[in-house]
Write a structure and sequence with these properties.
Number of helices: 19
Order of helices and strands: HHHHHHHHEHHHHEHEHEHHEHEHEH
Helix content: 40-55%
Number of domains: 3
Low-confidence stretches: 380-384
Number of strands: 7
Strand content: 5-15%
Distance between the termini: 63 Å
Radius of gyration: 21 Å
Largest sheet: 4 strands, parallel
Strand order of the largest sheet: 5-4-6-7
């Protein structure tokens, strides 16, 4: 019941100060949506008034409200509980992209689902069993759906495995893993997520892995913060690839990463899950700073104050979301950078989409940090 979520998330501590609404990127462009008023309505008018309101699907779950709330109300957890209640009443958000992504999740729920490892191509080295497992998430599928905007999901996965190989790691990859369930979790489908979690943990354990490396912040968040609550002890350590690379960079005895020159001026988009939820902020900047010839110029809002890429969980992509994306791209262009680097496939996709469809006053190359690092590795190889 939503009343239990009110108690668990301390929503009753809301002081009506409005800091959450003033900080919310959606509320800036949609006066109908307000975190403060959503909580107030749940406390005064009852849960049905909230769960039947289509505006609950507008929240980006970016977490800005959580980190700024003086009463430490966990609004995003409250919102997720409201969505779970809404689903039980048959209420859902409007799925984007003709529900193709929702259909893919349904396909993965089939017990016979297999994903061939051919997405990786030739070159990167992998094994069937290893102490380290690489979890690519839905990169290959998203690469097909968003090919027309230049998003290359497979390139991110290949770059991640190449970087692991550069560290002397030959990871295992699988064909029975499924979606991490991030979007289903944030849209209230906890039972579905529990099933996905059990299947993923079992698939990874069959390889003997003691460590699982992620290049997607949402997958990392799910394994690190959500899966243990759903299925118990995982039996392996979730590790984000940028943390692993930054550790090697800081290890003088290991000789760093041996990155070679890439002449470019770049700016960095902090993904919400990575910066606000998992506090991975310094590591990507250290890695960018380690590439000779690369100049990092920061946007006005960075780290935990960074503006969200404007869309979440493939629901409710409206003119409001596009205005948020244009705002962020305008900030990026104002730095004078020619390349926008991020570490999240969804940031990459959403900002590419806005760059194509909206007038942002300029153009930027958009790339993933692991791809940029792998490019620097290739420059090293080319240089002998």
């Amino acid at each position: 019941m939503l009343r239990e979520a009110v108690d668990k998330t301390k929503a009753y501590y809301c002081l009506d100060c409005g800091i959450c609404t003033g900080s919310c990127p959606v509320s800036r462009y949609d006066p109908r949506y307000s975190p403060r008023l959503t909580v107030e309505r749940a406390l005064i008018l009852g849960e049905k008034d909230v769960v039947c309101d289509p505006e609950i699907w507008s929240c980006l779950t970016c977490g800005t409200c959580n980190q700024r709330c003086p009463s430490t109300v966990d609004y995003t957890a409250f919102l997720r509980a409201a969505r779970a209640e809404a689903r039980q009443l048959g209420e859902t958000g409007l799925c984007t992209h003709a529900e193709k992504i929702e259909a893919y999740l349904e396909l993965q729920m089939l017990p016979t689902y297999r994903r061939p490892a051919s997405w990786l191509g030739r070159g990167p080295k992998t094994r069937k069993r290893s102490d380290t497992y690489y979890f690519p998430g839905c990169l290959a599928f998203l690469g097909v759906i968003f090919r027309e905007i230049g998003f290359e999901g497979n390139a991110i996965g290949r770059a991640a495995v190449e970087l692991l190989n550069h560290l002397g790691i030959v990871p295992a990859i699988g064909d029975t893993e499924v979606c991490c369930g991030h979007d289903a979790y944030w849209t209230g489908e906890v039972d579905r997520v529990r099933d996905l979690a059990k299947r993923n943990v079992a698939a990874i354990k069959r390889t003997g892995a003691k460590r699982v490396v992620f290049s997607c912040p949402e997958c990392y968040y799910m394994f690190r913060q959500v899966y243990p609550d759903l299925v118990g002890n995982l039996g392996f350590e979730p590790v984000f690839i940028l943390n692993l690379l930054a550790e090697r960079l800081a290890d003088a005895k290991a000789g760093g990463l041996g990155l070679k020159t890439l002449e470019a001026k770049v700016t960095y988009q902090d993904p919400c899950r990575l910066a606000k939820y998992d506090r991975v902020i310094a590591e990507p900047r250290a890695l960018l700073g380690a590439i000779p010839g690369l100049e990092l110029v920061e946007m006005k809002r960075t780290a935990r104050d960074a503006l969200c890429c404007g869309s979440s969980s493939w629901v409710s992509c409206s003119r409001v979301n596009k205005r948020i994306q244009v705002e962020r791209l305008t900030e990026a262009l104002a730095t004078g950078a020619g390349t926008l680097v991020t570490a999240c496939p969804k940031c990459n996709i959403h900002l590419r989409c806005a760059m194509r469809d909206q007038d942002v006053g300029g153009s930027l190359e958009i790339t993933d940090l692991v791809v940029l690092l792998a490019r620097s590795m290739a420059a090293e190889s080319a240089g002998g």
